[in-house]
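Aim 2, interim progress. The first record below pairs a target sequence with its structure tokens.
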Amino acid sequence: MSDIDTEIRHTTPAGGNIFADLGHSPEEANKLKLKSQLMVEVTLWIQQNGYTQKQAAEILSVSRPRVSDLMRGKIGKFTIDTLVDMVEKTGHHVTLEVA
């Protein structure tokens, strides 16, 4: 028998913000959510195209270690501007909706 507690105490609803649930201020949680969405888009693009990190780095005009940071989800190492630039270099476009 395991002593690991596996009881689910809270789930973030679809469309919710996990970063707010983790205790970040509303402003910071929104920034982190936006960054994570941009990171996911670029990561999926790399995976769907079967690019190596080196190939992706060349296309995105960044270093291979930078792509590694992206793929590992190191969100604190990226600005929103940098991530928007990366998304644009994938051939996709970023739009903003203010609600």
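The second target in this work package is listed in the same format:
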Amino acid sequence: MRPINLLHLLEDVVATDEQGNPVEVDGEGALDVQVLAGEQTVTLQIPFKLPPRNVEKIASLKGSFTALIPGRMETFEFESFNRANQEQRKAGVAVILENVRRNNQVWEVRVRVRFDDAEGSLQSHLSWIFNNECYMLDAAGERVDPDTFETTRQTENEVGMAYYYGIEGKLNGYKLIYKTPAVIIPLEMEYEVKDIPLP
């Protein structure tokens, strides 16, 4: 389970000192933290108002956050590059091969990914979608990764990408492989941390 993003509303935080008195959060709004690929930990910094000097610890810190979790990974395979806007659909996602064309010395492949409900996971500050694999397989089954890519479209539930492949000659015998989670699942999680000493 590798979250894409964590959203923690500060109003959901409840903290008390060792006497059972509340320790107040300093501020409003939300902590919105992207989980980058390969990271094993994420830090959420919760601001508190300065408690009285006699308070030595936060006896209990409770809260909840919503994690956006990618569902099962699906593989989309395109073998023909002569038709525009070829669409394949699995579960809650559609992948559209918009077109393939020669662009100077490279092949430009335009792909669009559309979710039924991306659950806010395609906001501009979240970059997980750009880590989805999109590669070519030649007739011998050798993998060819793109040299570079760029975003062509980004909406609430849809992202378009242009991938550039330095393949010489025609694409006879090649396949395009695109992999993406089929759905994005919001999962609410509660926590409690006890006996946090104060400096």
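The chain has a mean pLDDT of 94. This observation will shape the mutagenesis plan for the next reporting period.
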